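Retro notes, structure queue

What went well: the backlog is down to a handful. What didn't: a couple of records were mislabeled last round, so from now on we paste the full input next to the output in the thread. Example, using O-acetylhomoserine (Thiol)-lyase from Pusillibacter faecalis:
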Amino acid sequence: MSDYRPETICVQGGYTPGNGEPRQIPIIQSTTFKYATSEDMGKLFDLEASGYFYTRLQNPTNDAVAAKISQLEGGTAAMLTSSGQAANFYAVFNIAGCGDHVVASSTIYGGTYNLFHVTMKRMGVEFTFVEPDCSEEELEAAFRPNTKAVFGETIANPALTVLDIEKFAHAAHAHGVPLIVDNTFATPVNCRPFDWGADIVTHSTTKYMDGHGAGVGGCIVDSGKFDWLAHADKFPGLTTPDESYHGITYAEKFGLGGAFITKCTAQLMRDFGSIQSPQNAFLLNLGLESLHVRMPRHCENALAVARYLKESPKISFVTYPGLEGDRYYALAQKYMPHGTCGVVSFGFRGGRMAAETFMKHLKLAAIETHVADARTCVLHPASATHRQMNDQELAAAGITPDLVRLSCGIEHADDLIEDIRQALEAV
Ligand SMILES: *Cc1c(COP(=O)(O)O)cnc(C)c1O
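Corresponding output:
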């Protein structure tokens, strides 16, 4: 299936029914699975045989949907998680523990910033945040002997900076560590980070992949390209025996293609249990079936809206990487020539008050803590998702007090622009 084009994988990837089997991915709504003998089951616990035994570890519905996302990204293995937060936590914690260090782009999603800067710091993992458009020298200076990974977002939420994936991958590999890219906003329809040197990709499937505001979820995909054994001293969790799994060495037993995800499932999902429900995985798959049809419309609408806003005298700035003249236009053209995402950020000459007045007068665009939905929605990050940040941290994340984040849905662009026009009149 991986040989097919993304459009075909969106519709048919991950699941090929046999004779007389359900055409749609069945929802295996079962916590557990039956075996004839204790020996049979023992082999599963030893990771000697593969098979299902408890849905916290693996479930056939989840695995089929994860396989589709893996094919879309061009990866070798993938797993679903209960949320994007869980996906990013697992992806990093799988290789960086107490006493380790990670380099991350400063413009990442507020929830991820908090996870790294507050919660994981408390667990003993230190982060150095760098500007996404820092020079190679500045990036180089952020590394330490105990650095275990580099992290960034293809298109940052909500700053809409574009990650120079090649630059970050190059720096990571020069230091013998993988690049983890959160590809939530671009989706594999618009960008495949593995093609540019990223090693691990994460998703909040809550966004475009689901696309209908129906289920919170996440996904981790491994490219299978990072050679853990070549940097064995940095990644003992993958290259030395796991005593909690009868002395298995993941990188040896499961190879480069399977080690990362197997360890992540066997250890982190086993112990933390942030599993996606099979019902949600089924809904996620329905979203994936039309991802390739929806993404171009999200992008078209966002570009039309960005161009309209750019002409308004009440608007002080418009940020959209797909808009000619945007600071990240060139990088977006390089990494996402067919479109970026549906999210546009902009500010008001009248400041924070003007932003709030504008939002109050919108009729089609609903105020929501959400993006990447089929329905247009709008948010004021400084008073919602990013309110835990002080002004300095806000500025580092690329957010001003008057910034409004508009997530263009897949309605008709003219109706969205008409809604914006009448709300601007009230400002
Ligand atoms: C929303 C989001 C997350 C967090 O995902 P949840 O599914 O809400 O837990 C992580 N990264 C990015 C880029 C996001 O937009």
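Agreed that this is the format going forward. Reviewer comment attached to the example: Residues 6-286 form a domain with the Aspartate Aminotransferase; domain 2 fold (CATH 3.40.640.10).
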